[in-house]
Amino acid sequence: MFERRLRRRNPVLGEASEGAIRAPSEIVVRVHVRVPATSANLGPGFDALGLALALYNDVEASEADGVTVTVEGEGAGHLPVGADNIVALGVRLAFEAAGRSFKGVALRCINRIPLGRGLGSSAAAWVGGLVVGDALSGGSLARDELLALAARAEGHPDNVCAALLGGLTVSAAAADGGITAIALPVPDDLAWVVLVPTISASTTETRAVLPASVAHADAVFNVQRVALLLAGLQAKRNDALAAALDDRLHQPYRRALFPWMESVADAARRAGALGCVLSGAGPSLLALVAGDGAAVAHAMEAALRTAGVEGRARAYALDTAGATVVTSRAYPPAGPSR
Question: How far is CA 22 from the centre of its chain?
Fold first, then answer.
């Protein structure tokens, strides 16, 4: 179960971490949760594939009367600091799903995931809030419940599944709102180079350019590529990945918003990338590299600058843990911390 997996990583909780519901004297009142950035789609896997990256937001929380939020790092001075903050909404949602009365929460959000760049900042906020709320309310929510709540709140499952589970995830939503998700192993000799432009884009804007329907041939094209991508990664067939990262469902339409996308992707491939795609809905780009990604990162930055836009590229490791309860403190304490 997801909640048990989170607690086993938590050295503070000790043996009590294995219980799904704590006794009143063991109720968690302060938690620290870490959530990874995510890149969705990976080219052809529109609204189905997600990848967790080793770039993290941290949330520190304790139960309180009313809601207070402090934001540090990305979004400081711009994100809501009251009950309408997404992390706070996620905490409330978890309490309600657990059947617990929600009185309030004091949140400290340390954000490192850029906002509006296609790296799952809103998914990290929802997941962080839900995991915090689950921990504070007794940890009674199963993994599938958390997945369904996060996907419903976010509007699609790809980013939230990767943020919850870590690794490369494949997800599908059922008509009843249930989510089926599987985290797959990925070769550890691959580098994931992310170019983050200084400009941002809203999901509403990037989805508005997509057509209501696509040609049957384009659907077949993407089914073939996403199958080849997953098979190529599992078989460690790097030679198959260049063709596998192609797409006809969303990137051709989003090029109108990011006219420099092709020139940057071409520069990445010339520098040795196996492929280069939009990260989620953009504007960030994600390049897949066998080995060190430094040369590809430099080439992407230079190509973007030539197009008149500034940005920074760097290689990230794959996060395999997903959302994690880093520390948790019970009140009243049952003795010295372990």
Answer: 29
Query: Pairing between strand 66-73 and 104-111?
Result: parallel
Say what the alpha-carbon torsion angle 266, 228, 162, 8 is, to the nearest 10 degrees.
Answer: -130
**What pLDDT, in 10s, does the model give residues 197-237?**
999 988 788 989 999 999 999 999 999 999 999 999 999 99
Percent helix / strand / coil, the chain, rounded to 5: 35, 25, 40
Helix 143-154 vs helix 158-165: crossing angle, to nearest 10: 140
Note the pTM of the prediction, 2 decimals.
Answer: 0.88
Please state the domain extents for the chain: 2-180+320-330, 190-316
Angle (nearest 5°) at CA 239 between 299 and 41: 65
Q: How many CB atoms lie within 10 A of CB 65?
A: 9
The position carrying tokens 């040795």 is 272
Q: Is the pLDDT of residue 314 over 50?
A: yes
What sign does the CA torsion over 279, 239, 270, 225 have? negative
H-only helix segments in the chain:
2-8, 86-97, 121-136, 143-154, 158-165, 203-208, 216-234, 241-244, 251-254, 261-270, 294-306
pLDDT classification of 327: cutoffs 50, 70, 90: confident
User: What's the CA angle centered on 115, arms 179 and 317, to 5 degrees?
Assistant: 70
Residue of 171, 289, 283 whose CA lies nearest to 241:
289
Classify domain 190-316 by CATH number: 3.30.70.890
Fold exhibited by the domain 2-180+320-330: Ribosomal Protein S5; domain 2 (3.30.230)
Among 22-36, 84-98, 177-191, 219-233, name the one with the lowest average pLDDT. 22-36
| Tokens representing residue 35 in the block | 């959530």
Neighbours of 146 (CB within 10 A): 27
